Every structure is written in structure tokens, then in C-alpha cells.
Amino acid sequence: MASRALAVWEHRKVVGLLVRRDLKVKYQQSVLGYAWTMLEPLALTMVYYFVFGVILSADRGMPPEAQAYGGFVLFLVAGILPWTTFGAILNEAPRAMLTHSKLITTMKVPREIFPMATVGTKFVEYILTWPVLLVFVFALGGHFTLMGLLVWLPLAVVLTFAFGLGVTLFLSAVNVLLRDVERLVRILSRLLFYGSAILFPASMVLSSGIPEWLKTLYQLNPLMGIFQMHRAVWFPEFAELTPSTLALTSSVVGSILMLIIGYWTFRRLEMSVLKEL
Amino acid sequence: MAQTDYGAGLTSGPVIEAKGLGVKFAVNRRRKRSLREMFIHGTKRDPNAEGDEFWPLRDVAFEINRGECVGIVGKNGTGKSTLLKLIAGVLMPDEGEVHVHGKVAPLLELRAGFNDNLTGRENVYLVGSLHGMTEKQIDERFDEIVDFAEIKSKFIDTPVRHYSSGMKVRLGFALISQLEHPIMLVDEVLAVGDKAFKRKCYEAIDRMLANQRTMVLVSHSERDLRRFCNRGLYVKGGGLALDTDIDAALAAYEEDTKAEIAERKKRDAAKKKRAEEAEKQIDDRESGEDGADGGRTA
């Protein structure tokens, strides 16, 4: 285990190379390049604001005082941007090993680096969404707080990518042996999108009339807590918009668990995966 | 350079050691089995239901010393490439173990790692770095690589997807032959390229072998094997049948091939005979059945 970690560390340069290659390929093929990374979530935000904010008035779940700090629009943007990244991880995770089959079957490297490169690429893309987010923050009057920037932000980012890496390790190995996983993940990612309360404050679900056990179940989804954290960065003083103790615990424990399960599965299936590639 | 020291600093012990090596493939279970198959065909309809394990290689043991050039011969599908993959470390054995001391230059799939959307230059840097070359090393050898690959300078900055397959393979060989790893694994790659390029490849390999490097070669070309190798491993039916000099290994392989051809001829002849007899019988029976039918309708 320790020697394996060392081997991965020694190959960190390879991860960097793969990430750089993926970004290069992605951005040189389209004319607008980087602009696409921003346009897509922007368009989504507009649509969702219209449907959920204006028509369904999901903004009633927001505390009225939050209006001064960016309100529902900032809430939407701060959730949709990280979700775009996470959704992309989910989307590409099943193919993380398959697309590199030629390299994997000719080069002796620790195989973990391929899922790691996939997640690494997404991390860089996530960083690239920050300018867009900051534009919204400044335009809508979002405010910077110590609590938000030093507690919620690092926690949200670390947990998102820990969970993402776990999922990628798991899916990339399983999908080689069972190609149906790819389709399944597409459906699952839709469900998680709504299950993680990206478009409406989670407090709306918790204060609704659904049975108590369903509310507990809802908070046990680690992603729900993680994405609440992403928004709590800008609204740390509102209890409705920060994760509950249960949600916080389940997102921390869930992320660590996912990472362990993902890695364990990956190592477990490695031999069969190499035979199938 | 680190890579060359790696091999040179080693004591006289074997460079590649294999002990009781075995690999197993599941034939029917877990093998690219999508859910559809799992639900629609039960195990009953699976054509490979009996014996769900297959050992392409088993109980293989050998040691290869530094500076040796070993040829692996054998029929198609006897596990030669599998053996090479085990040595390269890109396949993990189910039984036994293989130890390789020193870095390995895998000439297994020359286009491996080339990304179609990147230019030739970018690909050289990418794949070179993936194999452990530093940027400075690649800088120094870049012209040599491009020159060896016979790629015109105006194409080197064109995306590789516009290259012909020959160009890609040439570039791949030119690059990997620049690696200074002490162990080379070669799988049939000498069969690529036109005559002139082939000759250049031979020279490059000779040059690489000249400074005490170890090579394992899988090939069907007797000429290549005789030219480079001083030792031969004859792989037969998933096991190591012979471990001698290359001529003896090739001779044994030749003999077995001849025996097999003779065997097949005999079998074909027998089959033909049986078929003829069966036809005769059917003819006989058909005429009999006609008679019976006629009788029933009457």
C-alpha cells in the first residue's frame, strides 16, 4: 500500500502530462475554447433561473435577508458551476481506463494515475470556472467572509474532489468489465442533480411535509451536504443555507468512504481489467 | 543519465527472472459480459459453459541475463505475447512471479500513446516523457528522431490524424529506439515499414544491442530471430517446451509444425471419407423414406 502510494507519487509527472494533453486537445479543437467552459453554465443558470426562480418561485426558500448578498441568482450560479464539474467527472469516469487502453497495455505505470488524470483535468476546469463565479459575486453584491473562504470553501473543494476521485476509481474499473455502467451513470447523474438540491435550497425539502425518515435519507446523500457547502461560502450566516450536522457528517464520512471503496474496488479488479483492455 | 546507470550499475545476476508463471482467463464468467447477456442468456446457453478457465500460460520459468537476446517462438495463440506482457508488467500473473531489474523499453505497440489531435512534435514530447525521457533529452534528440522517422519537417507540426499509418509507426519506432532503458521487449514490430525502413530498424536494434542491452523478441520471422537472438524459448500449448539456443528452438518448432500439417492432412482425408460415406447413407435412406411415404398416403 505504502509502496504503491510512492509509485504513484513518482509518476506525478505523468499525471501532469496527461492532464495537460487533455486540456490541450479540448481547447484547441474548438474556436471558442475556454469560452465554452463559461457559456454552458451561464446558459444553464439562465434557464434554471427562469424555470425555478420565476415560474416555480423556488427562491421562496431563500431567507429574505440573503437578497442583499446576491440572492437566488448567486445561489444558483454557486451551485451550478461546481455541479458542471462534478457532472463531467461522473460522465467521464466510466471511460477513464478504456480511453487509455493502448497506453495501459504497453506501459508499466501504476494504473491509478489514469483515473487521477481524469479528475485532475476536471479540477483545472473547475478552477477555470472561478472567474465567472467572481463576476457574479461582484455584480450581485456577494460578500467575502472568513467563515466562508476559510472553512466552507476548502471543505467543499476537498470533499468534492475526494468523492469524485473515489467515484472515478470505482466506475473506471467496473465499466471495463461491465459496459452497462456507462448508461446507468447517466441516469444516476440526473437523479443526483435533483437529489443534491442544486436548484433550490435544501431547507425547502426539509421543511416540507414529507415523512421524517425521508428527510433523514435525503440528508444522508453526501453530495447534498457538499453542494450546500459550495453555496455556504457566500451565505455562511444563514442557517437555512448551511449544511445541518447530519448533512455535514454524512458528506465528510461519505466522501472518505467513497474514496476507500473506490480504491479498494480498483485494486481488486485491476488484474481482470488488465486482461480485458 | 539515470536510465543508463540503472542497467550498468547492476551486478551480474539475471535481469529477468520468471518463476512458475501462469495467467488465467475466465472464459465465460465476468468476461465482457454486459447485463443484457446476463439476463437474456442464462448459463445454459453459454457455449463455453464447461470449463470456465483457460490458462494461456502456466508453469513458465526462466532467467535471462544481461546482454542476452532471447527469441520467443511458437504458434499463434500459444501465449507468446502474453508472456511478453507479463515481463513488461502490463499484465499481472495469477500464479508465480516475474522480476525485472531495470527499466523496460516496450516496443509492443508503436503508436501507443499518440493522440490523433496533437501534432507530431507534441506527441513526441508527450510519449517521450511518458516513457521517462526528460524534456532536455527530447530536445537534444528531436531532430534525430524526426530524421530517422523520415517525416518531412512541414508535417511535424501537423496533427497526427493526418499521418499515414506508416508515418505513425516510423515516428513511434524512432522515438522508442531512443530510449536508453536496459531491457527491450519487441513484439513483431519489425514487420512494419517498407524495405528501406526495415533495414534502418535492424541497424538501430543492432546498435542498441551492442552496448550490453537485453532484448526479448517475439517474431514469426526466422530471419529476424536468427539475426538477433542467441537464445530461443519455444512456447507450446501454454508452457515452455524448450529453452535452448535459437536454432534448436526454431528446429523444434519447425518439426512440430510439419507434424501438425501431416496430422491435419490425415484428418482431412479421414473426414472426406466419412462425409462420402454419410452422403451415401443419406441417399440410401432417402430413397427408402420415399417408399415409406408413398405407402402411407396410399
Structure description:
The complex is a heterodimer of chains A (about 280) and B (about 300). Chain A is an all-alpha fold. Chain A has one domain (about 1-275). In chain A, about 75% of the residues lie in helices and about 0% in strands. Chain A has 12 helices and no strands. Chain A has helices spanning about 1-10, 10-30, 35-55, 70-90, 100-105, 115-140, 145-175, 180-195, 200-205, 210-220, 220-230, 245-275. The mean pLDDT of chain A is about 90. In chain B, helix 4 (about 120-130) packs parallel to helix 6 (about 165-175) and helix 5 (about 135-150) packs across helix 6. In chain B, about 45% of the residues lie in helices and about 20% in strands. Chain B contains 9 helices and 9 strands. In chain B, the strands form 2 sheets. In chain B, strands 5-6-7-3-8-9 form a 6-stranded mixed sheet, with helices on both faces. Chain B has a 3-stranded antiparallel sheet with strand order 2-1-4. Chain B is an alpha/beta fold and about 300 residues long. The longest helix of chain B is centred in the C-terminal third of the chain and has 52 residues, at about 245-295. Chains A and B meet through helix 2, helix 5 and helix 12 of A and strand 1 and helix 4 of B. Chain B: Belongs to the ABC transporter superfamily. Chain B: Keywords: ATP-binding, Nucleotide-binding, Transport. Chain B: InterPro entries: AAA+_ATPase (IPR003593), ABC_transporter-like_ATP-bd (IPR003439), ABC_transporter-like_CS (IPR017871), ABC_transpr_TagH-like (IPR015860), Bact_Polysacc_Export_ATP-bd (IPR050683), P-loop_NTPase (IPR027417). Chain B: It comes from Streptomonospora nanhaiensis.
Question: What are the main properties of this structure?
Answer:
heterodimer, A: 277 residues, mainly alpha, 12 helices, B: 298 residues, alpha/beta, six-stranded mixed β-sheet, three-stranded antiparallel β-sheet, globular
